[in-house]
Amino acid sequence: MTSVTMTVNGKAVTKDIEPRMLLSTFLREELGLTGTHVGCDTSQCGCCVVHVDGDSVKSCTALAVQFDGASVTTIEGLGQNGTLHPMQEAFRENHGLQCGFCTTGMIMSSVDLVKKAKEQGITIDEHYVREGLEGNICRCTGYHNIVKAVIAGAQAM
Amino acid sequence: MATNGIGSSVKRKEDLRFITGSGRYTDDIQLPHQAYACFVRSPHAHATINSIDRSAAEAMPGVLGVFTGEEVAADGLGGLICGWMVKSKDGSPMKAGPHPILAHRKVRYVGDHVAVVVAETLQQARDAAEAVEVEYGVLPAAVDVAKTHDSGVDIHDDIPNNLVYDWEIGDKVATDAAFAQAKHVTRVELINNRLVPNAMEPRAALGHYDTGMDAYTLYTTSQNPHVARLVISAFVGIAPEHKLTVIAPDVGGGFGSKIFIYAEECVCLWASKKVRRPVKWTADRTEAFLSDAHGRDHVSVAEMAMDENGQFLALRVNTKANMGAYLSTFSSCIPTYLYATLLAGQYKTPAIYCDVQAYYTNTAPVDAYRGAGRPEATYLVETLVEECAKDMKLDPAEIRRRNFIPKDAFPYQTPVALQYDTGDYEPCLDKALELADYAGFPERRRQSEAKGKLRGIGFSAYIEACGIAPSAVIGSLGAGVGLWESAKVRFSHTGKVQVLTGTHSHGQGHETTFAQLVASKLGVAYEDVDVIHGDTSKTTVGMGTYGSRSLAVGGEALVKACDKVIAKGKKIAAHLLEASEQDIVFQDGNFSVAGTDRSKSIGEIVFAALVPHNYPPGLEPGMEETAYYDPANFTYPSGVYICELEVDPDSGVVEIQKFTAVDDFGNVINPMIVEGQVHGGLAQGIGQALLENAVYDESGQLISASYMDYTMPRADDLPSFVVHTTAGTACTHNSLGVKGCGEAGAIGSPPAVMNAVADAIGTRISMPATPEKVWRALQKTQLAQAAE
Amino acid sequence: MYAFGYHRPGSVADAVKLLADHPDAKLLAGGQTFIPTLKQRLAQPSDVIDLGGIAELRGIRAEGDNVVIGAMVKHGEVMRDATVKSMIPALADMAGVIGDTQVRNRGTLGGSISNNDPAADYPGAVVGLGATVITDRRQIAGEDFFTGLFETALEEGEIVTAVSFPKPVAAAYEKFRNPASRYAMVGVFVAKTAGGVRVAVTGAGPCVFRLPEFEQALSTNFAADAIQHLNVDASGLNADIHASAEYRAHLIKVVAKRALAKIG
Questions:
Q1: Looking at the domain covering C1-50, what would its CATH class be?
Q2: Domain containing residue A68: CATH number
Q3: What is the per-residue pLDDT across B347-387, written as a single tens digit (0 to 9) for each?
Q4: Contacts of A60 in chain B (CB under 8 A)
Q5: 3-state helix, strand, coil in chain A (%, to 5)
Q6: Which of A17, B765, C73, C117 lies at a 20 to 30 A Cα distance from B306?
Q7: Nearest to A99 among B123, B506, B707 (CB)
Q8: Residue range of the domain that includes B780
Q9: Partner chains of C (3+ C-beta pairs under 8 Å)
């Protein structure tokens, strides 16, 4: 067992864990943050995306012990003070979700995508969003309304 | 009138929990003292199990038990069943081999369940599963549906040639006669590629045996928890039905694959009693690929007989359908009653004959996947029609127009059993032509050519049959269940409403749509309606969600429950308003005496029913009404899809430029949700046409068993869609006039894409139209042209 | 995943020592290939040595006409780095098409080249630019570093610390993605360098390779037209359910021409 300390959604947590524990397992099983989902084994689907020190990361493709000292934000920590993040609102307003399983990872990726675009001065259009979401698979929506939601969310961010 | 009622694009009630990560999926549930299951799966497609040595595994840390098919047999458990008895041409029943929940002495596909290890932690279960030593006697495998008949491989005992059934529909004599007189015959050979449904939430199960109560609870990823309860109790025999609760909480997509009753969920429940602990299993994605029921996998030959004007005279089809190694829950009806009955399409073809041979192979079971039989029928008909147009030198829109069932012919009896109650096909075609700017296509093609690209356009005019029914008819055709649906409307003192439904929502938004329906029908606030589904101990008994049935069948049951509320409310209102019951009218949530301004709101009526101080003598208190509804017929959505795409001849890459979908779904409750359903269906249909393919090698290994090799449609593979729902034709036999919209996109789109590919490259290729396949087809054409 | 011991050294020297002490240990860089491998129980290291805590493996700096990139620099950093973008924009472009955003936020240069997946993008850039791989003990010419399918010139216990990429006259990378995995089915890096034209192909064969015929043709005319008459031999190329060797051979030329067209 190895001790790991990190800040998750603004709170410091310390746990003794097996080194082989994935970050996704750590969040789900140790901290009960089940909004982070696991949809594949090969780092393709993006259901497990969280933010680590401001970057989007596939939490099923990282060991929890690697993040000692890091700051992690999950979907549960995205909204501030009980209000939804504009991207969450945009997904609801634009029917950017159906079954909800990919949604949390999709929103986390979208927030990072928009943040990076704004930092780099990149125009957030349909092409940018579709390319930028290639690491997130949705089986329900055909992406049509997700793309709409991300563009709307970007305007509100 | 409620602004959130029928016809309004209300934002979904369910979304708040999903966008905040507060959804509750099966794997999110943790029970105290929960243990974990890991399955030992067959690495061989076909083998005898000569011995299983579990001693090393049992000795490993944390292991609570290791169980095999021997214990299943010793406990006298039955197997998984196929719930639809299809009979062969000669009247003999289909041949169903046993389907034990853990393989007994033989494995029949890669991924077949051989043993289960239950341990304190998941990692311990996995560690120990590797230590279970199974000695196999490897047998030759039959994998390809076209070759299994003569393979000499016997997958099940006493099932010669692996033939499950040889079934037929239609008038063979009339069809052959029409062919004999035809001026033209167009023929196609088609493969409908095998797909893996790939709901993003992998299947999971958590079984819990409560010793004190002697009762069982199963949390599972199911589209139809009551059907699961029925099969697990009546056929597998793990628990009596009244002592078994099945809960399907939030379910992350199904697309058919979570209709079926699977071995793993049965094993978790059974093993829970053995180890006296809750037992959880969650598939990883590779397990999902190996063991979820797959979809499609047909090989067909189809011929159309025509007169000199391109009028269809007769359609003749032969199909070989791959059923996999075992018959999954509804598998037998997919390539028969949900496939061949749709072969008339939108056309007045007077004679149709189809025969279907269903075969076992050493592959994962094949069952319903979004559309289930209807995409296969549509792909066949619409490919054939496009080839007919080519052969007859007719515009593809024109040949369809010539052969459409005319508006005044409804109700229309097809030659393949179904009676379409209503439809009007030309307006959809006209609208699609307009939205797709068909007239401007030649110019766009020229522009593409100028850039060195090949542009193509393709059509598809689909028909769907939703809400499979009525129960008596399907029963006469072999169904083991009735396909009615139920609903309960329950008022509380404060006028709030709980709706209990036997359908299940796993993305479709029933919590919203059903609340809109109740708000409209009863004049209560949309916000005051809560929809409960997915728990057999809470909801009304129901048959679940599949085949786009939830609104057309479940919604109509809900209407009938609302009608009962109104009828009872009128009695109470008559008493309170001192009027005759016949004089009470109900509108917008108020019970009024006709022609007066005297009225009571539904809230007041409900309160009177629950606090019956001043109440009609003899009338039961309470306001809680249940209705069951068994439809008179299927519903028949239809539509026309047009795909326009560009092919890069250098690489063979296909890029969709525009996809236009025009659908007639009858009346629509929530246009936003309906459009979303179409979008999702289109993505899956386009995925089938261009990207997705489940590939087994000759030994029966699934090559495409992860997202590294199975191409899932991603955001950058698809365009935004042009989706239009017409005012359309309302269904004639449900009061809502609704038809269903969940599968249309996946049904209509594959032929539109493939017809467009064929139009672009001048030759027809099989699905999926991968870059290499397109490139090779172009090479062949160029070589042929060079030789001329 | 099998159980393992976990170490997080603070220096390259400590990492080298840990490797020497644990002969069955494996290095963890970005983990984007290694962790899925562990998850699928395809590897069973006794120990995992995480290089994430070693500051000296990070950073991008210009050294004369070279860009030196630390082994633990992530693809996303290379893609966005001002120095890389100004000196070797093709390298930033290449980094920007590796995997997806999340892979680029974790995956590293050192991890990618040390693993030498035949479908990885970086080997194309290293060989295409004639870069030099720097390890804890020596410098290895990019050409000599990639020796075969998942094989490199690294010795037992040797750790890549950085790669030095010389600034080319002109360069471009073009990739034809595997439609499922998004790895390179064919990737071609073309560069006009001080030492001549280089064309490196990744994804198509068991290991990155150069195309001397293309290079020769491009030496006199560095444009797509120059290779129009050339064909690539399919023998020895990879084949799978997505692309045959013959199709990959065809794509190499198509992709090379597109890379050249980018340079214009």
A1: alpha beta
A2: 3.10.20.30
A3: 999 999 999 999 999 999 999 999 999 999 999 999 999 99
A4: none
A5: 40, 20, 40
A6: B765
A7: B506
A8: 418-465+633-788
A9: A, B
